[in-house]
Amino acid sequence: MSSELRIILIIASVAFFIFILNMVRTKKLELKYALTWLLTSLAFVLLSIFPQILFFLAGILHIELPVNALYLCVIFLLMMIVFTLTVAVSRQALRIKTLVQEIGLLKEAIERMKK
Amino acid sequence: MKTLVIIPAYQEARNLPRLFEELGEVPLDFDVVVINDCSTDDTEEVCHRYGIPVVSLPVNLGIGGAVQTGYKYALRNGYDIAVQMDGDGQHDPKFLKLVLSRIHQGYDMCIGSRFIENKGFQSSLTRRAGIKYFSWLIKLLTGQYISDPTSGFRACNRELIRLFANSYPKDYPEPETIVTAIRNNYRITEVPVIMRPRQYGESSITGNMAAYYMVKVTLAVIMAAFAKKNGDGAR
Predict the structure, then answer these.
(1) How far is CA A53 from CA A22, A45, A56, A69, A80, in A?
(2) Coil, helix or strand for B116?
(3) Alpha-carbon distance B157 to B106, whole Å?
(4) What distance in Å separates the CA atoms of residue A40 and residue A77, rounded to the nearest whole number?
(5) Once rounded to an integer, what is the mean pLDDT over residues A8-29?
(6) Strand partners, B4
(7) How far is it, in rounded angstroms, from Cα A8 to Cα B163?
(8) Do A105 and B170 count as a contact with CB atoms less than 8 A apart?
(9) Contacts of B235 in chain A (CB under 8 A)
(10) How far apart are CA A52 and CA B203, in angstroms?
(11) Is-contact B84 B163, C-beta < 8 A?
């Protein structure tokens, strides 16, 4: 991995980590959903500071270029985030459905009480 | 026994008056509730005009969410039996008595089937093939043969009302709920009914949707067969 790429990665990942942290601090992001992002950005910080991790990973997985091991890590983390989002969306959908039904039933009950 | 007829309705303003009039002619004691699934036509006004209670959902939930609302309504208002009937006029209220009789006899669920006597509207050949396939799949998974697993004309007792109020599939719920019911050791039976082609409007399952329907329902039915008992499999 070139030193230029390393420097860019370090700056970007540290900035990203601070950005996420700030979002949580100002309550723009719920900690629950920010957790995967925090872990991800922390992982990026570690990988850019200690690229040996990538060399080690590339070694044991027989990946020729360490940068490809980096891509592997990124894809893995992205998939993790997308999956947690799918879980969150499913839960939201169920909650919204329950709320919509409740509103409908309450409207009808009010209508009946008026009569 | 306190009986409720649940009619899920989406854009059925033209079909409902005839259904209400036919329901009025049935010499049985029951209440009716329409679940208006966020229709943009006069569905709600038609119900008010006929003095039928109507639950209007503020967001379109699809058939499963609408029917489940009906079961919640039945549970909260203390009904012993709930009957589901489509709002499109396919189901003839004449057969209510027959469908209900099986629940009075002690069955937990009774489905009105058009494929026992094969009379009346039988729908297209491809559709019948699809329905046969689900019959076969349900027989394979549960051991019970259901001739019309997609029929939305069905009655169930208090216990199943409670189960369905707590969890009900979102879309295409019919075959899946049969499997859930059998899996939880409820007794299901069928009676022959004559269905009619819908009067106005179109079926929601055509073309590409049919392929999606087959795949989705197959998966849902298999999942339901292995879901936790009394469980939230259908959530």
Answers:
(1) 28, 12, 5, 9, 20
(2) coil
(3) 9
(4) 6
(5) 88
(6) B31, B82
(7) 57
(8) no
(9) 94
(10) 61
(11) no
Q: Locate tokens 């033209």: which residue?
A: B14
Tokens in use for B116?
Answer: 């026992």
Query: A21 burial class (0-12, 13-18, 19+ CB within 10 angstroms)?
Result: middle
Number of H helices, E strands in chain B: 8, 7
Give the per-residue pLDDT at A44.
85
Q: How far does the CA of residue B146 sit from the closest CA of chain A (Å)?
A: 29
Number of residues assigned to chain A: 115
CA dihedral B218, B220, B226, B229 (to 10 degrees): -140
Which of A92, A105, A106 best tests the B interface by mutation, with the highest count of B CBs <10 A? A105
The runs of H, that is alpha helices, within B116-229 are: 125-142, 158-166, 174-183, 208-226
Cα nearest neighbour of A102 on chain B: B69
* Chain-chain contact of A105 with B65 (C-beta, under 8 angstroms): no
What is d(CA A27, CA B166) in angstroms, rounded to the nearest whole number?
34
pLDDT at B234 exceeding the cut of 60 = no
Residue B35 with chain A: CB contacts under 8 Å:
104
Out of B53, B57, B76, closest to residue A100 by CB: B57
Per CB-CB distance under 8 Å, the chain B contacts of A94 are 235
Interface mutation target, options A101, A107, A114, chain B, most CBs of B under 10 Å: A101
Q: Which ipTM value was assigned to this complex?
A: 0.87
The beta strand positions in A2-78, using DSSP E, are: none
The mean-pLDDT minimum among A32-36, B143-147, B204-208 falls in B204-208
Instruction: State both tokens at B10.
Output: 């989406």
Helices (H) and strands (E) in chain A, counts: 4, 0
Which chain B residues have a beta carbon less than 8 Å from that of A111? 53
Q: Residue A100 and residue B68: Cβ atoms within 8 Å? A: no
Distances in Å between the alpha carbon of B6 and those of B1, B24, B27, B166, B186? 16, 15, 18, 16, 21
Closest of B96, B95, B88 to residue B43, by C-alpha: B88
Cβ of B61 within 8 Å of Cβ of A94? The answer is no
Instruction: Dump pLDDT digits (tens) for B54-74.
Output: 999 999 999 999 999 999 999
